[in-house]
């Protein structure tokens, strides 16, 4: 037996300091440690309540510990956990049917995260291009300020150099172009391009919606050059923008779509959706994952899809969005020296800091947290709001009150 192990390890007291002592410092988490949650309410170790407008970075869209999901997962836990990819299972088959019936796609591949979904999408796009056109067609084009994951491949495709520093040499045949710039796209997407990957709304890059004309132009250019168009909807998908996937309200259909985050409401799952023509190029043994599509994740995902992909549910997302945007417009109007004009789609919303407070989005969200409101940032200059899609009018009003209270404290600090 390891002498370092304590027989009471499962109940040993831990604090925020424990993170600094035993975990690799890839994050700088808040001082408070959440221990319990329900809906949009979170409680820390001291028993303090917080209103969560982060959804775990646009993940827990049906709220924490959603009773429907808890019940479904509990039943599946007591039925079948894991098999390995030598076998399929009923939940993943049902989820595959649900997603293909709800989208343009004919085929689904399941994995464990958004990064893995994008990795699969980019590998598939290259394999398709190599097979159909030859090895010269291998370049991948993405946008500056984009974010597509943290594997070496996906972080290199992402357009934020700060995430690749120190990890060189990086994968080759990658190009980055300005977002929403049609002329730059025309110049970059030539016959050697295998795939173009784009977020319909940039999340980590500052919550910047894609211009529908830009996305339509990408579709046309890809059609002309034979490139595969990949939409990264890891953050924007599964109801977040007010439609099941953002592409559906932008009227631009990709060849491959990636999803994760809200698909599992906190249970790890990712999905890559594509057409029969492209999907057949992932033949037996060409790609895989040990845990992807396991019965537990697929059960949660299926219940999420069935709950969110309903007209009344999605209409309420748009209604809640309008209320929050109205509040933020008033907030920015009352404090123009602090905030700019809010932007985004649905319940993925960015509130830019005004010139005098650029670089201080984190300072503002920390002030909000002290008052009991959890918010995100999208870079140093943008406050990001991504509440659960079930957010109530009362919770929207509470968030507005706390944000206003925080501004006064933030200015006075």
Outline of this structure?
It contains 14 helices and 17 strands.
Low-confidence stretches: none
CATH fold name of the largest domain: Aspartate Aminotransferase, domain 2
The CATH superfamily name of the largest domain is Type I PLP-dependent aspartate aminotransferase-like (Major domain)
The portion of residues forming beta strands comes to: 15-25%
Helix content: 25-40%
| Biggest beta sheet attributes | 7 strands, mixed
CATH architecture of the largest domain: 3-Layer(aba) Sandwich
Write down the overall mean pLDDT: 96
Cα distance, first to last residue?
A: 52 Å
What's the count of strands? 17
How many separate domains? Answer: 2
Structural class by sheet pairing and helices: alpha/beta
Radius of gyration: 22 Å
CATH top level label of the largest domain: Alpha Beta
Spatial strand arrangement across the major sheet? 4-12-11-10-7-5-6
**Number of contiguous helices:** 14
**What oligomerization state is this entry in?**
single chain
GO molecular function, one term: N2-acetyl-L-ornithine:2-oxoglutarate 5-aminotransferase activity
InterPro entries: AcOrn/SuccOrn_fam (IPR004636), Aminotrans_3 (IPR005814), Aminotrans_3_PPA_site (IPR049704), Class-III_PLP-dep_AT (IPR050103), PyrdxlP-dep_Trfase (IPR015424), PyrdxlP-dep_Trfase_major (IPR015421), PyrdxlP-dep_Trfase_small (IPR015422)
Subcellular location: Cytoplasm
Catalytic activity: N(2)-acetyl-L-ornithine + 2-oxoglutarate = N-acetyl-L-glutamate 5-semialdehyde + L-glutamate
